[in-house]
């Protein structure tokens, strides 16, 4: 979602994070920036148009939706923290106040502006949440509950607004150096940093922004929470009989005419087309890959063990869900089968003791997937990175691992021409366009290849 040219409304724009967000939207070329303020006389950054807005006042919320009918990006930033425990509080007054602003007020804004965003082409809705959505500090238990509720609400709103094309972004941060965290002595993020990450995430169409390492760790801890939840599929893939050639073929064009599938691609990258599995492990496969440091993450890539296939599937699911593509049971079962296929080459990236990335290569075939196995070709059908680990070159590491294990074979993949981030990743990983293109579902799909390095 582009900021330049957008019409943005930031709630709570008179101070703290909201003020910096509003100023940065002006600096990044927004066509108009409305600043929601409870006090109409409040001072605002240059270029920000004041709008009277207490988000707990239904009349003011409706009036703002009328006045700001040209909004394409709504940033729900306004929030309160009362530093109140749950059981130790004298009554529910403060807990209610936090729920009123952080949950009900934010929800009221989402509801009022959903039709405005729809009218203006979908746009984006950004909810400023917190690390406290996942981590409850007992000294501020009722705030955490309100931010957890706002997180759950954000996910629901994302699903509800998907059909109208609205990008819904959840921003989570640890302490930020504003009035709200005035008494805090531990490390705080600068509001400038959080605002910049938020707007960068928005520009990159991310559904989640994790502003700092601690927040990323909290998110992972939630993801790894062992509380059992009903799942539509078994956690660990059970190897199933190999599909016969053609069963899973998806590359066009063939006599049977299966269209290219864009579903197995990573959010920031490939719209890769699947290739049917066939027999034979790659020659020259290495036994182990060296550990590699990527930014502030030490990631190791390796061929996935059977025990890691369940975690690889979870990464695939999380990456798909993060881009709003919740896979159905049939698709999950198909990917589980593909990962467990003995002919395939599943690769994982492991960081912080967990699988954070996965890739799958399958034996390449002639006739765009329908013909016999080509001995010198591997087809890369999936590359996915845990959303919390994006931007750390893990995609490149995974593709390097596949290339190393593919011995002297060429690697091929298909990717959507419009996916610039994917193009960047593949360029960095040594893939180049071959000039072959396909049209699928109104999208142009490019064929890329990485040739083995000559020794
Ligand atoms: N600071 C942190 O450590 C931290 C960490 C993670 C997440 N966050 C979240 O980041 C967001 C911004 O917080 P901040 O740190 O910038 O806090 P802040 O400095 O206390 O500013 C809060 C802003 O929200 C506005 N506001 C409060 N109640 C409102 C209401 N009912 N209607 C409209 N506006 C209202 C305030 O307006 P007035 O000036 O009129 O009071 C102020 O502009 C919040 O959602 C907060 O929960 C903060």
TrEMBL record:
Skewed-composition ranges (Low complexity): 259-291
Top-level taxonomic group: Bacteria
Spans annotated as Disordered: 207-297
A GO CC term assigned to this protein in UniProt: membrane
Family designation: Belongs to the short-chain dehydrogenases/reductases (SDR) family.
CDD domains attached to this UniProt entry: NAT_SF
Compositionally biased tracts (Basic and acidic residues): 207-216
Protein's name according to its UniProt entry: N-acetyltransferase domain-containing protein
InterPro entries referenced in this protein's UniProt entry, alphabetically: Acyl_CoA_acyltransferase, GNAT_dom, KR_dom, NAD(P)-bd_dom_sf, Sc_DH/Rdtase_CS, SDR_fam
GO molecular function: acyltransferase activity, transferring groups other than amino-acyl groups; oxidoreductase activity
Pfam families in the record: Acetyltransf_1, adh_short
Keywords on record: Oxidoreductase
N-acetyltransferase domain residues: 299-452
Signal peptide start and end residues: none
């Amino acid at each position: 979602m582009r900021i330049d040219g957008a019409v943005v409304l930031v709630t709570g724009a008179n101070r703290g994070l909201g003020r910096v967000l509003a100023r940065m939207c002006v600096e990044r070329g927004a066509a108009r920036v409305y600043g929601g303020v409870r006090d109409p006389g409040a001072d605002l950054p240059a270029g920000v148009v004041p709008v009277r807005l207490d988000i707990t006042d239904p009349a003011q919320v409706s009036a703002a939706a009328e006045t700001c009918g040209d909004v394409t990006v709504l940033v729900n930033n306004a929030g309160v923290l009362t530093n109140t425990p749950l059981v130790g509080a004298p009554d529910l007054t403060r807990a209610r106040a936090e729920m009123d602003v952080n949950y009900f007020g934010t929800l009221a804004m989402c509801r009022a502006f959903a039709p405005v965003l729809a009218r203006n082409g979908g746009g984006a809705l950004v909810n400023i949440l917190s690390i406290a959505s996942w981590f409850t500090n007992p000294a501020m238990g009722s705030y955490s509950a309100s931010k957890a509720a706002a997180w759950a609400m954000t996910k629901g709103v994302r699903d509800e607004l998907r059909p109208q094309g609205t990008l819904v972004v959840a921003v989570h941060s640890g302490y930020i150096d504003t009035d709200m965290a005035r008494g805090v002595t531990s490390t705080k993020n600068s509001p400038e940093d959080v605002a910049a990450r938020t707007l960068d995430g928005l520009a990159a169409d991310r559904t989640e922004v994790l502003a700092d390492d601690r927040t990323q760790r909290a998110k992972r801890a939630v993801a790894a929470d062992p509380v059992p939840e009903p799942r539509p599929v078994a956690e660990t893939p059970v190897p199933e009989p190999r599909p016969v050639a053609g069963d899973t073929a998806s590359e066009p064009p063939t006599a049977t005419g299966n269209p290219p599938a864009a579903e197995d691609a990573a959010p920031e990258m490939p719209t890769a087309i699947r290739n049917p599995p066939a027999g034979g492990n790659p020659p020259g496969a290495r036994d182990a890959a060296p550990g590699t440091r990527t930014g502030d993450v030490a990631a190791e890539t390796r061929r996935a063990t059977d025990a890691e296939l369940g975690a690889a599937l979870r990464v695939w699911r999380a990456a798909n869900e993060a881009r709003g593509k919740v896979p159905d049971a049939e698709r999950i079962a198909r990917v589980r089968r593909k990962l467990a296929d003995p002919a395939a080459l599943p690769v994982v990236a492991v960081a912080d003791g967990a699988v954070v990335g996965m890739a799958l290569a399958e034996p390449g075939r002639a006739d765009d997937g329908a013909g016999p196995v080509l001995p010198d070709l591997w087809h890369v059908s999936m590359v996915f990175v845990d959303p919390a680990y994006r931007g750390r070159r893990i995609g490149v590491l995974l593709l390097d691992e596949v290339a190393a294990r593919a011995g002297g074979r060429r690697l091929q993949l298909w990717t959507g021409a419009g996916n610039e981030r994917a193009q960047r990743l593949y360029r960095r990983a040594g893939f180049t366009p071959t000039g072959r293109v396909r049209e699928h579902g109104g999208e142009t799909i490019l064929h890329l290849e990485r040739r083995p390095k000559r020794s």
